[in-house]
Amino acid sequence: MSPSRRNLLGLGAWTLLMALAPFLLTNDYYVSTLIIGFFNAIIVVGLNLLIGYAGQISLGHGAFYGLGAYVSGILAATYGLPVEAAGLIAIVLTGLIAWGIGIPTLKLSGHYLAMATLGFGVIVSIVFNEAVAFTGGPSGLTGIPRLALFGTTVESDLSYYYVTGAALTLVMALSLNLIQSRLGRALRALHTSERAAEAVGVDIARYKLFVFVLSAVFAALAGVLYAHYLGFAAPSSFGFKFSVTLLVMVVLGGMASVWGAVAGALFLTALPEFLRAFEDIETLVFGGILILGMMFLPSGLAGGASRIAKAVAVRLRRD
Amino acid sequence: MDLGSLLQYLITGVTVGATYGLTGLGFTIIFNTTGIINFAQGEFVMLGGMLGVAAYAAGVPLPLAVLLAVAAATLAGALMERTFIRPVASASPVNLIIITIGASILIRGVAMLAFGKDTFALPHFSGMEPIRFLGAAMLPQSLWVLGVTLLLLLALKSFFSSTMWGRGMLACSYDPKAAALMGINVSRMAMASFMISAAVGAAGGVILAPITLTAYDVGILLGLKGFAACILGGLGNPFGAAAGGIILGVLESFGAGLLSSAYKDAITFVILLLLLFVRPTGLFGKGSGERV
Fold first, then answer.
1. Among A16, A70, B26, B264, which residue's CB has the most CB atoms within a 10 Å radius?
2. Chain B residue closest to A244 (CA)?
């Protein structure tokens, strides 16, 4: 099967599963958990393009998520802009900020790049906390109106689920296509060896910047959806800890795999909810799963799944 | 702005910066020997402070409590290397980073269960009577912080330059394969690096605890600052990490005093970013000449 045919098949199966899931779940609470999981998946798919394909680490993507949420929230709640316009402005503005930050930052590499993106995240998070007049400070921005599309408010959780699911599916389709394109090949070359890629004429600076901005735009989109879903935004949701969680989702899901990114995001969003039952030792179990996952599934959920699939295929052929 | 308050900012900055430097030094020791950025480094600092408080509260005399805390944290460092790092020694750098993140969550969780979520203080080692000069005041504890930092720096310098173990660890940092061929036990060196950096971090944590107080979650921010310190100084350079920490502390203290205390961390990080844009490998880092 050709890769693009396989992608199409995968996307079809995913859309079906996504559409049916609310009917299989007995509890409304699960639907809202899935919605949050979709927000995270949108960010992680983009971040996976940056880390898994372009090979550039970022510990500051929580900031882009926050910028999307806050800019859209402030424009709609404080200045009364229609939600559609506020969201669009927020996404474009975040993309522009990422572009401005990306030019000097992506010249760095390795741990220095990690530090620079982390520093950017910390700075943005401090601004969220301290610019009380705009952001409401540590206690958060309240009164953000519900998402509306073409004049219709997306009222029920179920309809919000489908809107978010559609957005995620779009982001996935776009990313899968991108990987198959000339740009995807350039990115893989870049990941293997920057120098070799440059030597055969790949404009590495431009490609890195493009993927960085694209991943920031995805994060901003998720932020907009988040703000207009919860009606509330607080700085603690977008800080260093969240940026680290995003990185963990990418790695635990499986680097360089769109499907892995979605799996990692959904798994790590749902996990704390299931661990609530453990109460006090919740964080211990979470940390333990993280460590064990990395020790025994070094290429993440996606890698583990494809290994199992291969083993099954081999066995079937033998029979 | 009079001389007294400027001096005061400098003293505060250097004191706090010394702890950042010690944390950064911890990062550097592990990075140099194993190539791992240990995100649990801040937790060692937290363990130093919290274990010191716990031992003191249990009735152990203060000097002994301090030593006990450092020793216990060292053991935790060894345990962490043995259980989480050694079995996956050949994993990719980013996987190892995630494992250390998991370890930091684990250590923080255990500390929260053991000590609760309260903030604790340790008594000052030699009283709280400030020493006054030139219009500035200095707590005797600041002298302890500076003295211990200086002592640790000197001790580490002589350890790395003139003992068999120290030179073995340095050899691992240059080329682990070649080091192994020369008969150096690379995995033992890795464990030693975790122990030493845990000890250095815990020492920083326990001497700072009287001034800044301590809680189960102070490790996150301290780890962040320590990482920033060694990036600022140039990753892999122990002197750079210590200097980077002190520069960071001074920047923070002057930023808080002269510009805005709310934005002090933001000011520090803006300067750090600008510096990285001009010098992509830190202040004292080597050029990034890399072989193709």
1. B26
2. B101
Amino acid at site A118:
L
Is B155 within 8 Å of B166 (Cβ atoms)? no
User: Which of B101, B262, B270 has the CB atom closest to A244's CB atom?
Assistant: B101
- Shortest distance, CA B287 to any CA of chain A (angstroms): 12
Strand partners for B137: B132
In the three-class reduction of DSSP (H, G, I as helix; E, B as strand; rest coil), residue B54 is classed as: helix
Predicted confidence band of residue B88 (pLDDT cuts 50, 70, 90): confident
Distance (Å) from the alpha carbon of B289 to chain A's nearest alpha carbon? 12
CATH-assigned architecture of domain A33-318? Orthogonal Bundle (1.10)
Percent of chain B with pLDDT over 70: 97
The complex's ipTM works out to 0.82
**Residue B292 to residue A12: CA distance in whole angstroms:** 43
Q: Where are the alpha helices (DSSP H) in chain A?
A: 3-24, 28-48, 61-77, 83-105, 110-130, 132-135, 157-180, 182-192, 194-199, 204-230, 240-253, 258-275, 282-296, 300-318
Distances (CA, A) of B148 to B34, B45, B206, B218: 26, 14, 11, 21
Model confidence pLDDT, tens digit, residues A202-228: 888 888 899 999 999 999 999 999 999
Q: B154 by DSSP, 3-state: which?
A: helix
Which of A51, A107, A291 has the CB atom closest to B84's CB atom?
A: A291
Record: contact A283-B109, CB cut-off 8 A: yes
Which member of B91, B224, B235 has the closest CB to residue A240? B224
